[in-house]
Fold these 2 entries.
Entry 1:
Amino acid sequence: MMEFQAVGRQLFGEKYRGVRNSVYTAAILFISLRLSGFRGAVSPRVLFLTAFVFSAGIMWENLSSKRSVEHFEGLFSLPFEDGRLKAAIVSAFAAFTLLSRSLPVLALFYALSDWKMWEIALSLFFAAAACVICAAWFALLCGGFGRRMRLLRFSTAVLWAAAAISGILFLGTPVEKAAAAAVCLCPALPVLRRADCYVFLRSGISGRGPGRRYGGANVIRYFFRVLRLNPVYARNTLFLGLFACALPFLPGQAAMPGMLPIGFAVLSLNTPVCTMLSADPDTDINVRMLPSQRKHFLAGYCLFIFLINAGLDCVYLISWQIVCGGLVPQDLLTAALFALQSAMFSAALEWRFPLRDWRTETDLWHHPRKYLVPAIMILIAGGIMILKAGIWLWLLLLLPECAHFALYPEDRMSARWKAGQDI
Amino acid sequence: MEKQELLSIGDLNVWYTEGTPVLNHFSMDLFRNEVVGLIGLNGAGKTTLIKTVSGLLTSFEVRELHWCGKPFSFRDNSFRKSRYAVFAEDRSFSCFTFREYLAYAAKSYGREPENMDELAKGFHFEEYADVLMKELSTGNRKKAYLIAAFALHPELLLLDEPVNGLDFQSTEFLYRMINDYRSYGTVLFSSHILESICLTSDRVLVLEHGRIGNSFSGDGIRAETIREVLGE
């Protein structure tokens, strides 16, 4: 119990305030959506799959969080009983994942459609099972059993995940689904029992250093290195790339060629890349300490985000051309404008309003701020869809915006830091 | 020879929680080409002072602030180009090698780093210059930022607990570097270790309850006296 309290307080904050905030958020979401009268038909399969996959994904992010490791260093330096500490870590992280992340999402689903009690109970069971199973996958894949037989462990985890998801998707009755989840849950317990407890102390950033080292200072190269050395950042960008491939296949896209800009707007939602400064408080401090960082850091960061966004937009355009065809040169210009504009917004937001006082990286990646830039970009996309010539007007506006961004006086930029942004 | 004033702070109040100031009516003058040691118990406000002068904090008010006799703000870019801070705990730019970080910092300051090889040799850091900062040990990371500080030659060097994490040889070299720095500029450094203060400082400021409670200079800088003051 003491171990659970020690981990839980690190995650939820003093007096478990995080629990209360999450429950309030979920309740507000549920009540407001219910009162709005907005309803939709959602298959129970979608509810169960979301509960399982979303919870597992967030649990993984939480366990691999760099900040979690810092929390645990003190805990691991004291004498501890292996089994009790593992149970405390897994249960505290599962509770944190379920209450702070899964519950608000499930509350949206519950409000959107009319569900039977067993469906709600089953979705909660899937979410909880996903957290425990994910902890077992984490132990399997991240060194909980040493370095031998990596391929076997990887294959086991993949088959395990496939079995769980297939059970949810393809088994008919709720009893069968619940039984499948319970069967998948069973191996998690012995795996966790046998895993080395120190697997939860592994660094959030892993991987070997780059083979080639340079003497010069290049912020863009720095960020690409961070991206390469941090699996979560790289994985998120890769998933966004896959999503960009799949976007033209979504129903309605092919039938509506004018929807192309919406895709560009949605692809600006690369949260880890757009919170790289917030995610690294020490670099944040150093950047604020060094002079002329608007020119040297902010511009480089903006260019880095632009390159990532432009890459994703290219994937999207190629996929679109294969599926729908009919792209014109103006679409390339549109993609470039979206990539540049969203990069400038994201970099400026990160510079002016960095996120502080977060506990795990998922706090950062699920902060409401992440929707601001995509929301603005969707509005711009809507504008362009209504008025095609708007793209040229945007281009004209973007040129002075770029100049302003690059040439804004350093002192004024500093003076505009708002109070309450202390480091 | 009359001392030339470099930095003058008059009546500075800094707080993290409103109503509980960490620095309370703090005033200090720093002169050119001197080494000033800052000592005090935990929570006295040493790190807060260095962070404030580095422009990292906004929750402060100050009645008088002069740099080379002219009013300024801690976040003026011209002031930022004149000072460099080494913090007690720093894991910044972890995906740069030291050489890359130094090049980056030098570009930001618009100057070429000097004596890099000599500094790396003195701190026994030569073999780590091309290693990613995240792969360095705590002590080596500290050395990296100290080398950058001394190589950039700012007019004001702010060092927060510079001795922490350093081995014996590097500590000795650091004392030498701090003493030699008088020919380039001013050093303000905080430390818990009396020896480091006594061996290097022209003046020692004892920080108590957010303000300077005592100060020592010249022959008055003696470990026993300062220990007595701190123990009171």
Note: Chain A has two domains: 2-201, 219-415.
Entry 2:
Amino acid sequence: MDVVIALGMNGIVWGLIIALIALGLSIIFGLLDIINIAHGDFFMVGTVLAWFVLQTTGNYWLAFFIVPIIGFGIGALIEYSVIQPIKNAAALSIVATFGLSIILQESVRATYGAAPTRLVPPITGTIPMFGLEYEIYRLFAAAVSIFAIALFFGFLHRTKFGTWMRAVRFDPEMATAMGIPARKIYMVTFAIGFAMAALGGVVAAPITTVDFQGGVDILPFCFMAVIIGGLGNLEGTVAAAVMLAFFEGVMASFFDPTIARIGSLCLMSIVLLIRPHGIFAGATR
Amino acid sequence: MTPTKVHQLGIIALIVFTVAAPWVLPLFVDSFWVDIYSEMLIWSLLAASVNLLFGYVGLLSFGQALFFGMGMYGVAIGIAKMGLGFWPAFGFGTFLATAMAAVAGVFAVRLTWHYFAIITVVFSLIFYFTALSWKPLTGGDDGLPFSMPPIFTFGEDVKLSLTNTTIQYYFIALTVGLCYTLLAIVLRSPLGRAFRTVKENDMRASLIGLNVYLVRLTAFICAGFIAGVAGSLFAFFGRYASASYMFYHVSGEAVVWAIIGGVGTLLGPVVGTSLLIILREELSHVWEHYLLLVGSIVIIVVIFAPRGLGGLWHGLVNRLASRNDGTLDSSEETKL
Amino acid sequence: MTDIPVLEITNVEKHFGGLVALDSVNAAVESGKLTAIIGPNGAGKTTLFNVITGILPASAGQLKFQGQDITRKSAHEISRLGLARTLQIKSVFNGMTVRENLWIAAQSRDGVFKPFQRASKSKRANETADRICEELGLSALANQEASNLSYGDIALLEIGLALATEPKLLLLDEPICGMGPAETEQTVAKIQELAKRIDIVIIEHDIEVVFDISEDIIVMNLGQILARGTPKEIASNVAVRAAYLGDDDA
């Protein structure tokens, strides 16, 4: 039973981190109509940058502030140099981001190296919870994710820029006609997407490994969250990420984790075919 | 010279080269290039299956590796677990892939656009993980090796087998050649035109009486068949099957080959696949991080030449032809 | 001649969520007359065409084409029964030549699931494509990609696509919308000529053209049929004048 609780809790923590990453994927899809195959690698770049900050400054906490800012910058640069030019070949956007994924992975392999590293969490120690000793860092990771997600929703709903983003998503042509700078919105959206994935990387780095292939496993999971939650339904994405990770965590305590993954993927296919707008579609519209 | 003639000459040159390769290639480069060339031919078929779907029907599949893997496992399981001979195993692999495509297609082609790409990835991932975890049957991570049964035995002494490298090369070249011939026949048929019609405008296509769903499903099954043949051949070539060939990165690579070679042209995938495999073989020794170049090429092609090298080639030939005799022929017969 | 109407629309409704786009529409289109549907924007004219041709499923009611129930049939099945249409936003197969466009429409009658036959050997479809090219004056452009055509020629080609399917009933959705005066005249003449051998229902905003060419006019407003009659009757109908003719593009 302890194992079930532990894995279930790990699942929820992991789900919150995934939610943070998947939200970026979801807004990029919703606003730019781009399937971003490189999104897992955005996360991976975040973990590597976190490692880099730790190496140079010796202070992991700095990474929580610096890495999202660097991520925002890289994101804006990528949007300007790769995403903007392919706006007219939307069908091929998947292919371009696949190329981007290759470049990001290879750049990291060339600089950081191919060997995975484990980082020591900045907070060590455990705390008694539900009859077991639970790692404090994981609770902290969950708190940071929740905070960042809340910040994102606040930005989306409480700022002028957020309102513009929602307007562009709803009707790009109308928004442009009303004088909303759609070009700039696309760039900022993509940059925010990168920044959120990178922050996810900082949060997750101490509980997984830093590895140039670290994004490969994350990507399908993020897609599952986005699809099951409903493409473009941001609240749905968060809920689906947490539910899926919890479900896989609990399943993994009974079966092979691969079986749990297959179960999630099957669920995702069914949702895609029966309710392409996600399982929460009815509740939000 | 008309564009059609130029393309015919190109095809003849390619056939001559392929037939002569086992003798010609070792004169100029190391003889392992014959092996690499047969590998290129096999992989080009996987790219051709992506091309059939994307270039001719307008569906971008990111999951063709699933059918490639089915072909591989069909052959490997057929030989190693069921004790099948060469031909039955080949047939089983191809059948398994085609049947898989039929089942997956019934669901997948209900979706279009990005949703289609996603569901094809999902389907391939489901079976990738299944293959990984079903160790007794598939060998999981380690893969499933087998020993090559003979193609023909004639009495005690006469034995034809792929263990002879020349036979293996010609067997692969011939099979791949047959697949392209079959593809060319289908693409020139009414069905081939229906493919392009659906790609151009699916709503209009249904309004003139085409069953768009059935046309797409047919294309999906054809593409699955081609990928299945490629997978079966690759199993024979490598004497084993492995789940890693079903991962979405393999599908992604096939998409890249097809796009760089030029979608919507019959032989574009061969060009794209060959080019990138040559790049890999030549560059990876001198520059460990040659993939940076591959990624950049992919992005540059998508931005500046979305119709790939094949598209550039057709543009060039047509421009030269129209300069010569002033006619512009954009009919499909010339698009090879 | 039978006295079954070529198209029979019975209590057809179409809802989009809470919005009622078609509200219990009843109409029978008789053979041998050019019928026109007019009405302000948002009256439900195009939605009616979409429901008839199977692009959208009807929420309620029944549709019969030549006495046969087509309510639940899909777009391609309806096309195969001999009901063709054009779209308001001109739509052809852009990446294919004019001839290939017409060829595939003609071939759809004989079936396209023939993977081992050469397309260029399809005698009937070849002949139909050439005939229609000539009929519409597109022969000189036969080997041009449709994307290179002028707007007027695309509109003609779209009518050609419909004709190549050998329809018994042709629905035209604003065929002259966006055309210059010369193109309009040419297209109207073509439609009148076609009306002699094919039943035509036309949605059109240009009232002059409608009154000029049609023998039967259906006026729609707010998803309902407001009035119906000959051009003369419609012109003098008070309700129609108030709802439509009076305050529209006068």
Note: Chains C and A do not touch (no CB pair under 8 Å).
